[in-house]
Amino acid sequence: LQSMQREKWDGRIPDNYFVQCLHGLLCTGFDFVVLKAQLRYDYKDGTVRFDTRHYEIDRGDFLGDLEWLLRNEREQWERYYVPDIEPPTQLPEI
Predict the structure, then answer these.
(1) How far apart are CA 38 and CA 44, in angstroms?
(2) How many angstroms separate the CA atoms of 51 and 48, rounded?
(3) Are the CB atoms for 43 and 3 separated by under 8 Å?
(4) pTM for this model (two decimals)
């Protein structure tokens, strides 16, 4: 990992992975998801180190986030995909 990428994993799940996990909960109806992240560190001396982390995300802890995501996914579906309009390439802030 580069230093900027390392910071995104510092004590948390990066937003893009977290939203993917929430989307998975919406699609499957599962009560939880376990994210397994294997972070690779390459050092200048040729040393390689792996750091494996497990994060459990419980549906009940993120009901508000799930409602928000579902509402926004439906809006995007109706606005762009149903009428076959190309969505903007600039993503909104999360």
Answers:
(1) 20
(2) 10
(3) no
(4) 0.78
